Amino acid sequence: MKKILIVILTVVTTLSGFAQTKEDQYAKAYKLKLEFKYKEAFPLFQALLKGDSSNVNYVQFSSYCYSKYGFYYAPEAEKMKYYKTAEYLAKKAIKLNEVSADAHYVYAMALGRINENASSKQKIANAKLIKSEVDRAIALNPKLAGAHHILGRWNRTIAGFNGVEKVMINSFFGGVPPGGSYDDAVKAFTTAVSIEPKYMNHQYELAQTYHEMGKNADAKVWVENALKIVPAHDDDVKAKADCEALLKKLK
Description:
The protein has helices at residues 2-34, 38-51, 56-72, 79-96, 101-115, 120-140, 145-159, 163-172, 182-195, 200-213, 216-226, 234-250. The relative contact order is 0.07. By secondary structure, it is mainly alpha-helical. It has a domain at 38-117: Serine Threonine Protein Phosphatase 5, Tetratricopeptide repeat (Alpha Horseshoe).
């Protein structure tokens, strides 16, 4: 009886330690994600996902990391594979929890990345889906800065469509949801900045939007404001380079 009790206690202790290890690993991975350290977070989320593919957090944040890792670190020829995996995982996350704001956000993010190398027809075909997913994410969590950022990009992209693309929208896809103006883009990026004032890319995209609107004085204000931020991660490094390039155009 005593031996049986010892065995039971050993098993319980082992399982408890495993659970704690997995919990600690998730906490570490999530912290790295919050710090925009995608390269470090990516393998941790991959390991968590491999151990439990039914956990919505593991699935949706793995999707997020696939989009980010693919953009920054994957060879050009392999980027689309990462984005497609991100799309697959995001759709799975939505099935696991339809009311997860992050699941809808990472789906919109994956589609946005896919669209960067897509034909005009595919971009337009995905436009409605991206808008509906980002709207759903914001409805579920209005403080999700990344969703507002994507909404800003979406509005600016639609506003910048040429005449042929606009005809395709109306003729083949029945138009797009309300919005799609530069003013809508400014509003979305301004909201993102208010939520994450130290995230340089929000400010860069706001400046870029003003530049496309022909409001270069406003663009310069935001570029210079963004450049006051000390880069802390890869997003900032890229945003700084983009800001410096834009500032040269504005001078």
